[in-house]
Design a protein that fits this description.
By secondary structure, this protein is of the alpha/beta class. It has helices at about 15-25, 65, 75-90, 100-110, 125-140, 180-185, 195-205, 225-240, 260-265, 290-295, 315-330, 330-355, 380, 385-400, 420-440, and strands at about 45, 50-55, 60, 115-120, 140-145, 185-190, 210-215, 245-250, 270-275, 285-290, 360, 365-370, 400, 410. Helices cover about 40% and strands about 15% of the residues. A seven-stranded mixed β-sheet has the order 4-10-9-8-7-5-6, with helices on both faces. It is globular.
């Protein structure tokens, strides 16, 4: 489906048929709740920067599987490396294989804080390991996260992500079925507010095992950290005997080969990573200081390390090939330039239209918030017009630009995108935003009287 020059068509008869079949055998017709987005989107093919739906329409993909696609869909080199790894050694489930060692050696060489590594298959699995390890090493029960941070679906972190104003900073679980004591043991702070973290430590002396955060909280779009905040967390956790965990499942490999910790120069005790490291293959990991990592049962520590599919050769082969591409090409210069082109173009459009909106992002990520003023923490995001946010993403998707139509979800640029793609996207965005403004669907910028 082209972005301009043809009518916008949202009817999807073949997609609706596939969804109807899915609903009979899958709860809600999907395998993850965030895939159910109100329209019968059903996809059959992906290649490079494009995906195709069941009715043959083509989309420029800025969703990129929540950011897992760094190089582009179905990258031939990555796919070949994964198949070769499987041909050389199948899943063993015992002992160690050479590709597992090569993967760990490579991660240690690129992530600044990594001295040892364990491989697993999903970001949630990696953060689960990290939290349990922190509690096991310290003998403490409490965990500190930030409002708006998402670290997977497991009980210890399943609260206070995209909270409504009345629930933000209070008890806001993302699921039923969680024991109250699991939720209550996790305490909520504000991003970029070191004082809110210090207050928690003061109220629970000697009982905080770790602080876990996305160094750039992308699960609510993009919140950029101050250097003082990250450095302050490092000093505070060291002083209090707690671990600092950077959840770099999204920021890792997308923002720099060594993750955002490389950008900031602040080293955590533990780092989780995933998504982009395998360009779409299910592979993730936990890296950290040698002393901490030896707390796992595999090294005679007290914290269980288990998982039949951990270190699966297909995922590790894909990861090694992806990292090699990131090391040997101009990936970062290219996607950062395209990201800036997109962000500056969107800023121009909303400025000219007089829409109260703010463009944020970093590197290859871009976000258009519908609010005025600066954005530092989740409290600022409570001003965002969620209806306009979702409507913009839905209308862009209807025009052939796949942007997840859920509030506060970010957009990603891959190595397969081009400057022409960005310009075509901006052309469509200007048409969409102009129409939304005419229809009264966007907040208007207040006149300040300043020249």
């Amino acid at each position: 489906m082209r972005a301009t020059g043809q009518d916008v068509v949202v009817a999807s008869p073949l997609g609706a048929e596939l969804w109807a079949r899915a609903a009979q055998v899958m709860p809600g017709g999907v395998n993850s709740a965030t895939r159910a987005i109100g329209r019968p989107y059903a996809f059959v093919r992906a290649d490079g920067q494009h995906v195709w739906d069941a009715d043959g329409r083509r989309y420029l993909d800025y969703h990129a599987a929540f950011g897992a696609i760094l190089l582009g869909h179905n990258d031939a080199g990555v796919n070949l490396a994964a198949s070769r790894a499987l041909a050389e050694v199948d899943l063993m489930g015992i002992g160690v294989t050479e590709i597992e060692v090569r993967f760990a050696e490579k991660i240690v060489s690129v992530i600044p804080s990594a001295e040892m590594v364990v491989a697993c298959t999903s970001g949630s699995e990696a953060t689960h390991h990290a939290v349990r390890l922190a509690r096991g090493l310290t003998g403490r029960r409490r965990l500190v996260k930030v409002q708006g941070g998402f670290h997977g679906w497991h009980d210890s972190v399943a609260r206070n992500v995209i909270s409504s104003p009345e629930l933000a900073y209070g008890l806001d679980p993302i699921s039923s079925g969680i024991l109250p004591e699991a939720l209550e043991a996790t305490l909520v702070s504000e991003f970029n507010d070191l004082g809110s973290v210090e207050k928690i430590f003061a109220e629970h002396p000697g009982d905080v095992a770790a602080v876990i955060l996305e160094p750039v909280p992308h699960n609510v779009g993009t919140l950029r950290p101050t250097q003082e905040y990250l450095q302050g967390l490092r000093r505070l956790t060291e002083r209090e005997g707690a671990l600092l965990i950077f959840d770099e499942v999204i920021t890792g490999f997308r923002h720099a080969l060594g993750g955002y910790q490389q950008v900031a120069g602040v080293l955590p005790d533990l780092t989780t990573f995933g998504k982009g490291v395998g360009n779409g293959f299910p592979v993730s990991g936990l890296a950290g200081r040698r002393e901490a990592m030896c707390g796992f049962s595999s090294a005679n520590g007290g914290v269980l390390l288990a998982g039949t599919f951990s270190g699966h050769p297909a995922g590790l082969g894909a990861a090694l090939a992806t990292i090699e591409r990131l090391e040997t090409t101009d990936f970062y210069a290219r996607v950062f330039a395209l990201g800036e082109r997109m962000r500056s173009g969107l800023s121009r459009i909303v400025d000219e239209l007089g829409i109260a909106a703010r463009v944020e992002g970093f590197g290859s990520v871009f976000v258009l918030y519908f609010l005025s003023g600066e954005v530092r923490g989740y409290r600022d995001l409570l001003r965002n017009d969620g209806t306009a946010y979702v409507e913009f993403h839905r209308r862009m998707t209807d025009r052939g630009f796949l942007m997840l139509p859920l509030a506060l979800k970010r957009n990603h640029i891959s190595a397969s995108h081009t400057a022409a793609d960005v310009d075509l996207t901006l052309e469509a965005a200007e048409e969409v935003l102009s129409a939304m403004r005419r229809e009264g669907l966007t907040p208007e910028r207040e006149e300040t009287g300043m020249p």
